[in-house]
UniProtKB/TrEMBL annotation:
Transmembrane portions of the chain: 272-294
Record Gene3D superfamilies: 1.20.5.340
Primary localization: membrane
Phylogenetic classification of the source organism: Eukaryota, Viridiplantae, Streptophyta, Embryophyta, Tracheophyta
The protein, known as: Uncharacterized protein
Keyword field contains Calcium: no
Length: 295
């Protein structure tokens, strides 16, 4: 509902502002008919809203002098309208400072009748008051802002104190838990240190016992292996001598076979060269004979 009301007020404000602009343009150009039509439109637009016009004159001197001047000049209608506008008081919103009598006189100077000039002036005043109403609804009062600021400050102070108390409580809990954990860690370290010492002594005794047993077994095995190794060394020496003799015989045989194959290859190479030369001579003689026949 608030959004709908704001939209309606905004549309009415736009309409009244456009009407007032048309009115001012008509006054500036001297077109009285356009000014009158714009004033009627502004008056019809502003009269449809529920806001009553509130007008305050620009200065105290104008409040006291303008109705008297109108009565002295014999302009009773202008005096009545000025008195009516002067009697209006603001009702909890900013007042519009407007010299209505000067505006009425200016319109009459442009050739507008007095009733139409008064209607135009009333429409302009209502347009300005509507604009001020919309502006006052769009902003918050200073007292409400100060009250909201005080509430926010109190809430922030309360939240800050709660956070501080919570931090102190959690910090004390954390300290107690840390001390308890430190005591448990020290106790566990002492137990582990004593257990490690006992296990180390036990392992050292077992290691010495195993070392002595291993040394006895190693000496026993080493003596037997040394005897077997000497016997095996003599047997391998004999086998190596026999293998060296056989290797020498095989080397001599291979040298003989290599020399034989090398001589056979030389003979074969000589025969191949001889046959190749004979073949080339035969082919060349045949080619020469063919060339002579063709020539």
């Amino acid at each position: 509902m608030a959004a709908r009301r704001s939209a309606i007020l905004f549309s009415r404000n736009c309409a009244t502002r456009s009407s007032s602009l048309n009115l001012l343009n008509g006054l500036a150009s001297g077109d009285s008919s356009a000014a009158v039509s714009a004033a009627r439109l502004a008056f019809s637009t502003s009269s449809s809203s529920s806001v009553q016009p509130q007008i305050q004159v620009e200065s105290r001197e104008f409040l006291s002098s303008k109705p008297k001047d109108c009565l002295a000049s014999g302009d009773s209608s202008a005096a009545v309208s000025a008195a009516a506008f002067l009697s209006a008081k603001p009702k909890g919103r900013p007042a519009c400072h407007l010299d209505t009598l000067a505006l009425v006189r200016r319109l009459e100077g442009q050739g507008v009748p007095s009733k139409q000039a008064e209607a135009i002036t009333a429409a302009i005043a209502e347009v300005l008051n509507d604009s001020l109403d919309i502006g006052s609804q769009s902003f918050v009062a200073r007292v409400e802002m100060q009250k909201a600021e005080m509430v926010q400050d109190s809430n922030f102070g309360k939240f800050k104190s709660e956070v501080k108390n919570s931090q102190e409580h959690h910090f004390s809990l954390l300290q107690r838990e840390t001390e308890k954990l430190r005591v448990d860690i020290d106790k566990l370290q002492s137990e582990l240190r004593s257990l490690l010492q006992r296990e180390t002594e036990k392992f050292r005794v077992d290691l010495d016992k195993l070392r002595s047993e291993s040394r006895y077994e190693i000496d026993k095995v080493t003596a037997g292996q040394r005897l077997d190794l000497n016997l095996e060394r003599g047997r391998m020496r004999d086998e190596l001598a026999n293998q060296n003799a056989e290797t020498t015989n095989l080397t001599n045989k291979l040298d003989k076979e290599i020399h034989t194959l090398r001589a056979h290859l030389e003979m074969t190479k000589y025969d191949i060269v001889k046959w190749c030369v004979a073949t080339l001579v035969a082919l060349s003689s045949a080619g020469i004979a063919v060339l002579r026949i063709m020539m």
